[in-house]
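Q: I'm writing up a methods section and want to include an example of the input and output format. Could you take the sequence below and give the corresponding predicted structure tokens, formatted cleanly so I can copy it straight into the document?
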Amino acid sequence: MLYPLPAVLVGCRDEEGRDNLMTAAWAGTVCSDPVMVSVSIRKERYSHDIIERTGEFTLSLTTKKLAFATDFCGVKSGRDTDKFSLMKLTPLESARISAPGVSESPVVLECRVKQILRLGSHDMFVAEVVNVSVDEALLDENGKLTLERADLIAYSHGEYFTLGDKIGKFGYSVRKKRGRAAEAKGSAAAKGVRRRSGSGKPVKKYKN
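A: Here is the clean output for your methods example:
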């Protein structure tokens, strides 16, 4: 009953170089240092065994424009479907792992599996984020990631939704007003994020 949830595209590549995508809503952040995420996948899913064998996957955030492809990748199996080709999605070659991301996604996380938890209907893959790439169109003049421009979508009880209006920011209930210079300095983004153009081509390292 923990809804809404992010709808992400999970990318993987098998030992023969075949790429696949699957949609998952049971994904999230589990640690900040080191940066780690998790995704829970049913054992019968085609991607499950690939990720278990290779120990790598990507998480590509999804948008309103990607909604149709996101749903398609969640109901079709990669055993007999080339989802990248059919959905006209462009594989984004990762910098640190073999698994591809989705170039049309605003943010792609490259993940290396650290632990697999056998939980029952799903196995949880706990992974370290070893690289992040972002579409440079989402970076403002100060290098801050403005993800609200991306039209991200969420999944809730079998339906997809765009995000609503911004109503505040972390700590706004207790924060005192600051000058513009202080705000600009405080908005610098985290290190180690790879910038890329809208075409998916890496631009340069995104640092504060």
